[in-house]
Amino acid sequence: MSATLGLDAARACDPARYALGGIAPRQAVRPTSREEVAEVLRAAAAERLTVLPWGGGVALTRERAAPAHDVALDLSGLDRVIEYDPADFTFTAECGVTLATLRAQLAARSQELPLEGAHAARATLGGVLAANASGPRRLRFGSPRDRILGARFALGDGSLVRTGGKVVKNVAGFGIHRMLCGSRGGLAVLIEASLKLAPAPERRAVLLYDTTPAALAEATRWAFLPRLEPALVTVLGAAATRGLPVTATGGAFMIAIGLEEDAPGLVEQRAHVTAALGEPTRSLEGDDAAAFVQTLADLEERDGARLSFATGANTPAALAPLIAHPEAREFLFHAPAGRLHVTVSPERAQAMADAAAAHGFTLIAARGAGEIAPAISPQVAVLGLRARIREALDPAHRFALGERWERGAL
Fold first, then answer.
1. In which region does residue 148 sit, left (phi positive, over 0), alpha (psi from -120 to 50) or beta (all else)?
2. N or C terminus: fewer CB in 10 A for the chain?
3. Measuring CA to CA, which residue among 11, 48, 3 is closest to residue 400?
4. How far is residue 118's CA from residue 100's CA, in Å, rounded to a whole number?
5. pTM of the full predicted structure?
6. Are 233 and 139 in contact (CB under 8 A)?
7. What would the pLDDT profile of 17-52 be if each residue is shown by its tens digit?
8. For the sheet containing 90-94, what is the strand order?
9. Do 137 and 231 meet the contact criterion of CB atoms below 8 Å apart?
10. Pairing of strands 253-261, 330-334
11. Closest among 183, 43, 63 to 126, alpha carbons compared
12. By three-state DSSP, how is residue 161 classified?
């Protein structure tokens, strides 16, 4: 086995930094161009080695071990913004650039990329796309799959492929780039991506309310929220707020209502909220509000076993049947988007999954909790389609997490 898979020895990294489920790969390399990525993949294919694309490692460090994990492909060296067109609200960047770097550049032009990966200072664009990660503002802005216009990626044999375009009007044909969002590095290596931007809001505010189980269960109390269309509504268990700058001080739960509008619109929305719920326990404005939204995304990647669920219900009241469940140690529920994340004890994760399913929540991801049997298994037709896609994109099965993606494994 070559020392650096065809690259200069300076590209080698310490494999211990890239452990998956506590098991380190045999090699780790950090290319700095798409040509070097292709060279690594060609060399790995020649030596029949499996490859794991690695961004900031935000979520991968908590993944369970793969059957084979020979080479960690660190993409943090591909961190350039290639093209930025403020007038067209689009940009193209290499996938090793961090969310924090992108935000700083876009903020100077009063624009933003509304993708909400945890730990933005080290979360990479490619990692967020590969996870199809989205946070509390998912309903308003969509997921990465909704914002990507095109991408350049590498297949397991080192072939470089490009699909889609750099601007909205040029996007046509089959969107393989969208399919790679959520593939978690199991089908190809995302190298560059073009995405749609959004104007940065003129004003931001987060209104924080302490509440009780009884108040949470009052469906009529929250019925106005979907009509108001706030940027976010997130319910946090008191345990989830421990260690945060703002914690639940009164009731058992805290509800964060985020408003992002022009100045008159924010005043109007705030008046609607206070008319229905009263004055907030606390409120945050401007940069403090933006920082709190990032904190909500960070909470999705806390240490410990975590289950993630989806539901069609979109108000805090949907959570009422689950809040007293003994297996839920801490949770956050992004109500408009119908996304619930629960930290559980690993040995009782299945009981929590079963209880959530009984109340209309579908398990969509599990981390650090062992094998969880979802109440609704993937359909045979869906699994067959996944298998055909994998055979088309990675017929030699070079990607370490490809089998997990193919099986729809959680």
1. beta
2. N
3. 48
4. 11
5. 0.92
6. no
7. 999 888 999 999 999 999 999 999 999 999 999 999
8. 81-85, 90-94, 189-196, 148-154, 160-164
9. yes
10. unpaired
11. 183
12. strand
Structure token digits, residue 387 = 């298998």
∠ at Cα 381 (380, 386), nearest 5°?
A: 95
Task: Give the separation between CA 256 and CA 348, rounded to whole angstroms.
Answer: 28
pLDDT of residue 244: 74
Cβ atoms of 79 and 56 within 8 Å: the answer is: no
pLDDT score of 1 more than 50: no
Average pLDDT value for residue range 163-192: 83
Contact at 8 Å (CB) between 331 and 237?
Answer: yes
Q: Where do the domains of the chain lie, and which CATH numbers do they carry?
A: 1-200+377-410 (3.30.465.10), 203-367 (3.40.462.10)
Residue 405 dihedral angles phi and psi, to the nearest 5°: -65, -45
The amino acid at 22: G
CA torsion angle for 282, 288, 291, 293 (degrees, to 10)?
40
Per-residue pLDDT for 174 more than 70? no
Place of tokens 């071990």: 65
Closest by alpha carbon to 256, among 321, 329, 335, 325?
A: 335
Count of beta carbons in the 10 Å neighbourhood of residue 240: 24
- Report the alpha-carbon distance of residue 327 to residue 372 in Å, rounded: 14
With tokens 């494999």, the residue in question is 15
